[in-house]
Every structure is written in C-alpha cells, then in structure tokens.
Design brief:
The chain has 169 residues and is mainly beta. The chain contains one helix and eight strands. It has an eight-stranded antiparallel beta barrel with strand order 1-2-3-4-5-6-7-8.
Length: 169
Amino acid sequence: MRKSFALPMVLGLLIVWSAAPAGADSGTRPFKAFMTGEMTWDDTAFECLPPIPVRTGMEATGPVSHLGHSTLVGSHCTPLGNDYGPGEMTLIAANGDEVDITYEGVCPDYADFPLGDVFTCTLEFDIDGGSGRFADAHGSGEGTMSIIWVGVGEPSTTAWWSWVGTIGY
C-alpha cells in the first residue's frame, strides 16, 4: 500500500519542481507606483543647453509594486515647449535594490496657467535594468506627474507621480 502511494507523490513533486522555474522567471508582472515629494529647478545645470539651461529635479517617496516603500530620484532638462525628456530616474527600494527608468512626456501650456492650480503632465516610461534583484529588470508603462503650479521662477513645489505598466526581473 505504501509503495503505490509513494510513486504518484514523487512524480507529482517532480512535476511541481520542474514547472516552478519556468513560471517564476521571464514574464512581466503588473507594475504600479504612487509617490509624493518635491520638484525643483536648478539654473546652474551646465549639462542642459541654452536657450533654457535649467534642470528639473525630483525626489519623492511612496509605495511601488515589487519594491515596497521606495525613494525616487531623477531629473531631465527643462523644456521650452510642452514636451519634456528624455529624463532618467531611479527607484530605490528599502533594501537598496534599484530600478532604473527613462521617461518622456507632454505637459499643458504653462504660459497662462493659474498659480496654485494642479498642473498635470503625462509620461511614458521604460524600465532599463537596475541593481540587486532588479539588475535585469525590463518593462514599460505610462503615468502622470502633477505639481502645484507656482510659476516659472520658483525653485521648488509639491509634486506627485502615478504610474502603471509592467516589470520583469
């Protein structure tokens, strides 16, 4: 009786063990984030070329799927028109693992935008590797970046980001 029970059990375990690596790897998974922080502008950024040599910087924190509570740091050259980017950002998980992202997007015309209103831009992003368990990360998606509009001359403002897409690692 024991022999007849043991053989199906061993075969079942072999099937489960052989299937686990295939299902745990290469596919992408849903990816989403919501982060709040600050947007800054630096007019001493020499890597951004005239006519507007200003670098837009960002720092934020919040929940990110697959990373947990994370920190965002990033920047791009500030555009003359409504298009922005390409820019680069890094998401840093609590354990130090990182996800590298490139992005670009479109903002509304800011010339007559009312001070104090929420100014929202759309963006598209690509996940381009990282470190730790995200060294081979890949994926893409879209999202928004919103700020409280304080005008062109102010050094910083409150900002928040929201993304949805996919990630594989």
